[in-house]
Amino acid sequence: MAAPVSTDRSPPRDFATVFARLRPHMAELDVFLRSQIAAFEPEIRDMADYCIDTSGKRIRPALVFLSGWQGDGRVLPELVRVAAVVELVHLATLVHDDIMDESELRRGRRTAARAFGPEAAVLLGDALFSHALFLAAQFPTTSVCRLVADSTRRVCAGEIIQTLRRRTDDISDADYRRIVDLKTAELFRASCALGTELAQFPPGYVEAAAIYGRQLGIAYQMYDDLADFFGREDRIGKTLGTDLISGKLTLPLLRLRQVLPEALAQELLEEIRGQRPARLAFWLEQMEGRGIFAAVAEVIFAELEQGEAALAAWSGLAPTPLLLQLGEVLREQVAALRSAAA
Amino acid sequence: MAAPVSTDRSPPRDFATVFARLRPHMAELDVFLRSQIAAFEPEIRDMADYCIDTSGKRIRPALVFLSGWQGDGRVLPELVRVAAVVELVHLATLVHDDIMDESELRRGRRTAARAFGPEAAVLLGDALFSHALFLAAQFPTTSVCRLVADSTRRVCAGEIIQTLRRRTDDISDADYRRIVDLKTAELFRASCALGTELAQFPPGYVEAAAIYGRQLGIAYQMYDDLADFFGREDRIGKTLGTDLISGKLTLPLLRLRQVLPEALAQELLEEIRGQRPARLAFWLEQMEGRGIFAAVAEVIFAELEQGEAALAAWSGLAPTPLLLQLGEVLREQVAALRSAAA
Fold first, then answer.
1. Helix or strand or coil: residue B69?
2. Which residues are CB-contacts of A109 (< 8 A; sequence separation ≥ 6)?
3. Chain B neighbours among A 88-117 (CB < 8 Å)?
4. Which residues in chain B come in under a pLDDT of 50?
5. In 10 A of CB A81, how many CB atoms?
6. Which of A22, A121, A216, B85 could lock A113 by a disulfide, CB 3.0 to 4.6 Å apart?
7. Shortest CA distance from A159: residue in chain B
8. What pLDDT is recorded for position A5?
């Protein structure tokens, strides 16, 4: 089945359109995060402040707020606190990721590793992460702490597995999905579970929202990996082809490998292994000619459908339509990649 | 006042003599730690296993067990669990420290950073740390989680401050003590607080044991910094002079700077700043001639006395004599450094 492709050139909705209703929530989150700076030792406050910038997309906090939505837009303090927890965990992983990728910039300014040196950045990530767990331990029961610590371990495991597999061709579709599930979907899942749980929705709904969050996270990461080939740099705000160049076999490359003639497939794998220079334009052309975009889009849509199915029985609850909108927006984003590239 | 100096050449007691009674506790700790490997994702179990080796001194677990001692040598399962938590936090910080120091070996084998690469080691440290917090969240209340997360943030802050001050001469005695307090004493303090609390000793005793642990930790780190100049490599099992060479102004150097004539003090600071090669033998000779060993030993003993004072009102409780023994052993170790060097 070919993926539905939009031919509409009007700008696609992005997550910001869904998040617009969260302005008061995000404002409270900012105030809360800023207030946490004081908890750090005086010597490292400026560094913590630098990392807790307000320019990120804040998708995970948004998932907390949307999952805990009760129909009236009230901002529950428990949700603000737990949104801060998941965002701090995410920021800590970004600080550590940027050390390893030797990235220069993130969100238009120097990464913590560049600004303070990699040594300090390792420890700063640790400090952010411990503060997240400290906040998680302020809830009346240990369940938030347990869920967050468990999720974090899984996020790290996903990143480690990905790191160990870089520059190797020893990776199947199932391996790829597992990495995406751990490194990205896990924290999406946790955000939805925490939001619904703290807003005291029934356990069955907590479970359904968690499944939806997980599937959305998988689809989101797959979209991100697709955009690394088919995006437009001016729109997605980063350099294209970084996965190919850094030797990561993501879904578009896995699918391409499967349909390439043997000789070409070997050339691709040699580039992945770093044995010859990566040819982004060449492989992009190959992808265009072999229907890779549609194949990947189809996988993304199937992942989203699985998530939507989990929410089907809960259409009457306030968060459901909001969460479903995120999936719809993601579909539009995928379609927009296609029309931008075409 | 000159520090008391032993002239006895019989080998000094080390912590192992005090820890001998903890053999059943340490055996249970090993079993427990090994059983935790299964909690990690299959792909990273070997790496986690590699880090959770059994050859370390396990001082922090020993503090947990000794602080929670109830006179009959019973092994409380809560103490085993919390000993695992503090040890995992400590192991995670070692994994991260070794990345930054670019160390080749730790405890006679390759560091995790060398064995798996620095990228994987950053994440592996994170995974160990999150598993520690996950275990901390298994207790009935959030207090363990809160204490451990808070301590960890402070340990990281201490390491960051030390890192930022490397190769600078902008450091006072008070700065040095603060770094030592955060990076080492904090987890000693937490271990004693957790041990006494989980063994249900009265709150006043928890507080007293925490103070003792903190002072022991400060004294222990100062001893370690003294041994970096006055130790014998075959006894302390590491290269001497690493602090001087890496530009860290520790207490022996701070004291030396204070008594050196101005011209020599400037030469020392130039070596700290990396502007000229470090001359370990030369400065060691200067230290010998200017009574630096005795001056530092005096500070160490004064720190220990403060800790002992906190336990004075609690001599009747079972952990007290065991904890005090640790301080006595540390005094003997300091004295032994002197007689070995003489």
1. coil
2. A53
3. 92-93, 96, 99-100, 116-117
4. 1-7
5. 21
6. A121
7. B123
8. 47
* Range 230-259 of B in CB contact (< 8 A) with A: none
Residue B131: CB atoms within 10 A of its CB come to 26
pLDDT at A210 over 90: yes
Backbone angles phi, psi at A274, to 5 degrees: 80, 15
Chain A contacts in chain B segment 115-134 (CB below 8 A): 116-120, 122-127, 129-131, 133-134
User: Measured between CB atoms, which of A134, A146, A156 is closest to B150?
Assistant: A134
Contact B129 A126 (CB under 8 A): yes
| Mean pLDDT score, A60-72 | 94
* Whole-angstrom distance, CA of residue A275 vs CA of residue A249: 15
Q: If you measure CA to CA, which chain B residue comes closest to A115?
A: B164
What one-character DSSP code corresponds to residue A9? -
Chain A partners of B148 at a C-beta cutoff of 8 Å? 133
Q: Tell me the chain A residues in contact with residue B137 when contact means C-beta distances shorter than 8 Å.
A: 137, 142, 145-146, 149
Write out the CATH class of domain A15-337.
mainly alpha
Output A57 or A318, whichever has higher pLDDT: A318
SS3 A281: helix
pLDDT digits (tens, 9 = 90+) for A158-184: 998 998 899 999 899 999 999 999 999
List, as one string, the DSSP characters of A217-250.
HHHHHHHHHHHHHHS-HHHH-S-TTHHHHTT---
Q: Do B126 and A156 touch (CB under 8 A)?
A: yes
Helix (H) / strand (E) containing A282: helix A280-289
What pLDDT score does B57 carry?
A: 84
- Indicate the domain borders of chain B: 15-341
Of B84, B169, B63, B194, nearest in space to B128 by CA: B84
In sequence order, what DSSP letters do the residues of B224-252 get, joined into one string?
HHHHHHHS-HHHH-S-TTHHHHTT---HH
- Phi, psi (5° rounding) for residue A105? -125, 150
Q: Is B161 on the interface with A (CB under 8 A)?
A: yes
